[in-house]
């Protein structure tokens, strides 16, 4: 079918010729399915004997609540199979006949002869003068001059193409403008924060040297260049210190675990040796236990099961003072023992 004729008919009728044919075929298919459904309803509502279904000899057919004979599963399956075959046969007939109908209509009815297309003027084309419009020939993409072999585009098509190009350019410019505005806003916020830090009079402000009068512009520039040059060295030093710091943390954790283990061992040794004895022995054990706890809590010392200091030496005067306190505690216990024979 001629595209010019199709465009002219579409503009005149306000719908494409093919859409009319599609509506006709859809209507026929709807009527076909309604007919098949009516045939299926008729067959299922008819008695089985009317359709030639007879029960085997010696059997009684099933009935519903009203006493009507109902179809068995085999009979129901045979009816459904026949309905499906009828529907397929009708669909094939409709498709074959209406394909020919579509070709006939498009070639002989909904068509304008090609030699008459240029002479047809529609109602909304009246009083329009197209003689003054001189369409420009399209240009080669790789050349700035019009090509001679390419036919000129109609004015409407050329205007539509230019409008589409301008619309795409406008959308791209709008997106670029939005991106630039967001960048400007972000830069303004960053500059505001930097100005506030530079103008701050706080001694702890790391940017206070910028407004310092004691440094010239050259000195400030040299200082900044030196700081930038040292960034790589600082990063390398940090990378070297990280494993050492991790090792130090592991050693400290290990020492804490060992100290906790020694303290638990001492408590186990003392607890394991505790046996019921004479009152005087019980007093000595109590004094030893309390003395150990006092030395560990108030003096910060760690003692093993024998009472020796663990983890380094200690000051002599502190040790003498501790022994003196132990002696005083023993004298106090002996005095209490003499007072209570």
Automatic annotation (TrEMBL):
GO BP annotations listed: cell division; kinetochore assembly; mitotic sister chromatid segregation
GO cellular component: MIS12/MIND type complex; nucleus
Region (Disordered): 130-160, 249-283
Top-level lineage group: Eukaryota
Keywords: Cell cycle, Cell division, Centromere, Chromosome, Coiled coil, Kinetochore, Mitosis
Record's compositionally biased regions (Polar residues): 130-150
Family annotation (PANTHER family): PROTEIN MIS12 HOMOLOG (PTHR14527:SF2)
Family: Belongs to the mis12 family.
Protein's name in the database: Mis12 protein-domain-containing protein
Protein species of origin: Tuber borchii
